[in-house]
């Protein structure tokens, strides 16, 4: 429209010019044409400018698409290419990332297990993020936290760099997992998160570990600091010197309740991709960790932890009322817990 108008006025200026020629009129028409031209040019420039910058913003992050990873079709929902806000994945931009969550219970060896996983260059497990009550106060907070973790934007001492190939966290069943299981299962399925269940077979040993840990929270046996995990045999010995008294009235109901929780959790998460790992099995045979690395689809490495086991050897050395406990468990399905012994 504007173009036509300016051309028309130019034509009329050329045709009419020679006949009727007041200089003022010619100048006015000339000025009008110039203003029109400048106006049109400026609009053109503006449009080119915005479209160019808009183009850069939307096109740059997806520059060249990553080549199709060499994976089996069932794996596709579990392979991700996060774009962290806090850093660039640089040379590993096109390396796929797997999401996982270690679902466990307190004093089941999950701290040790996590340090083993974190000794792998491509695995980053961010610890017990949901021990913080605010982060698990409702489903939207949980989802927001998980989104941040899986987008590689959660900063913790475990965060690795651009070449993380498996990202996750440690999550205790009593930290909102059981309470919000429906929504969490839904999240795991839609976002492609794999679950690693880590349980302990000998629940009596677990109970002793819980009681000793609770006691140390107050007593702080190691030079006035409370420690849940130790790195030297000397420290382990000091912590194990405390022998808890187990209330035998509560023993059976408590063991039963832990078993029920475990069974329920497995039932809830049955439809998610998962693996079940037992602490005792890893202690006995480290090659079990290959199964876990296979599950996470990371290259196989020799995993290490500096943590030292606290309660070693026969259980009877670790409690005050061994005789009562023996009596309470004789003839129950839990009798085998009395004998389970293993070295490390
Ligand atoms: C969830 O919890 C957070 C923090 O406690 C709160 O700010 C937010 O309003 C809650 N959201 C819903 C939907 O309840
Ligand atoms: C693992 O990390 C290394 C660098 O630390 C990187 O070169 C390698 O590509 C990563 N592997 C995977 C599968 O992402
Ligand atoms: C406690 O402190 C003493 C002296 O400061 C030190 O020799 C000892 O190793 C410490 N023990 C532990 C378990 O840290
Ligand atoms: C064991 O627990 C029960 C129930 O809490 C309590 O009534 C009982 O006194 C406890 N026994 C001992 C020896 O502490
Ligand atoms: C999970 O589902 C499978 C079949 O879909 C079933 O065989 C198995 O018993 C279930 N496990 C639990 C713990 O519910
Ligand atoms: C350790 O476990 C692997 C499989 O996870 C098995 O092949 C191997 O025989 C086991 N080794 C021992 C000593 O039990
Ligand atoms: C060709 C083209 O992409 N034109 C777009 C330029 O930007 C404006 C608004 O920013 C869009 O409306 C045009 O479609």
Overview of the structural elements:
The chain crosses the membrane at residues 23-40. This protein is α/β, with parallel strands linked by helices and 344 residues long. The chain is built from twelve helices and five strands. The protein has a single domain (76-338), classed as Rossmann fold. A five-stranded parallel beta sheet has the order 2-3-1-4-5, with helices on both faces. Helix 1 runs antiparallel to helix 2 and helix 9 crosses helix 12. The radius of gyration is 33 Å and the shape is elongated. One 2-acetamido-2-deoxy-beta-D-glucopyranose (NAG) binds at residues 134, 137-138, 140-141.
Give a short synopsis of this structure:
With 344 residues, the protein is α/β, with parallel strands linked by helices.
Keywords:
344 residues, Rossmann fold, single chain, 5-stranded parallel sheet, alpha/beta, binds 2-acetamido-2-deoxy-beta-D-glucopyranose
List the helices and strands and how they pair.
Elements: H1 2-16, H2 23-59, E1 98-104, H3 110-118, E2 123-125, H4 139-150, E3 166-172, H5 173-177, H6 181-191, E4 193-199, H7 203-219, H8 233-240, H9 248-268, E5 274-278, H10 279-284, H11 288-296, H12 322-329
Parallel strand pairs: 1-3, 1-4, 2-3, 4-5
Helix pairs in contact: 1-2, 9-12
């Amino acid at each position: 429209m504007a173009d036509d108008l300016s051309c028309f006025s130019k034509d009329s200026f050329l045709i009419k010019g020679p006949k009727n020629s007041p200089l003022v009129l010619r100048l006015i028409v000339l000025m009008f044409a110039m203003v029109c031209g400048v106006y049109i040019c400026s609009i053109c420039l503006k449009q080119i400018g915005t479209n160019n910058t808009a183009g850069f913003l939307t096109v740059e992050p997806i520059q060249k698409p990553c080549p199709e990873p060499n994976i089996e079709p069932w794996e596709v929902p579990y392979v991700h290419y996060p774009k962290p806000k806090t850093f660039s994945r640089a040379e590993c931009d096109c390396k796929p990332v797997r999401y996982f969550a270690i679902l466990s219970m307190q004093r089941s060896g999950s701290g040790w297990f996590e340090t083993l996983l974190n000794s792998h260059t491509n695995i980053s497990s961010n610890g017990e993020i949901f021990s913080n009550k605010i982060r698990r106060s409702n489903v939207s907070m949980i989802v927001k936290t998980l989104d941040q973790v899986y987008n590689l934007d959660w900063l913790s001492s475990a965060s690795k760099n651009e070449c993380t190939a498996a990202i996750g966290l440690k999550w205790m069943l009593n930290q909102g997992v059981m309470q919000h299981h429906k929504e969490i299962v839904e999240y795991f399925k839609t976002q492609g998160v794999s679950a690693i269940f880590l349980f302990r077979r000998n629940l009596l040993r677990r109970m002793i570990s819980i009681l000793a840990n609770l006691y140390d929270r107050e007593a702080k046996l190691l030079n006035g600091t409370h420690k849940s995990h130790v790195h030297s045999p000397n420290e382990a010995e000091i912590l194990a010197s405390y022998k808890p008294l187990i209330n035998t009235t509560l023993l059976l109901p408590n063991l039963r309740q832990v078993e029920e929780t475990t069974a329920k959790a497995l039932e809830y998460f049955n439809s998610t991709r998962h693996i079940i790992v037992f602490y005792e099995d890893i202690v006995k045979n480290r090659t079990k960790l290959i199964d876990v690395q296979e599950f996470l689809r990371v290259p196989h490495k020799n995993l290490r932890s500096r943590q030292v086991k606290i309660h070693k050897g026969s259980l009877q050395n670790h409690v005050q009322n061994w005789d009562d406990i023996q009596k309470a468990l004789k003839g129950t399905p839990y009798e085998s817990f009395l004998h389970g012994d293993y070295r490390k």
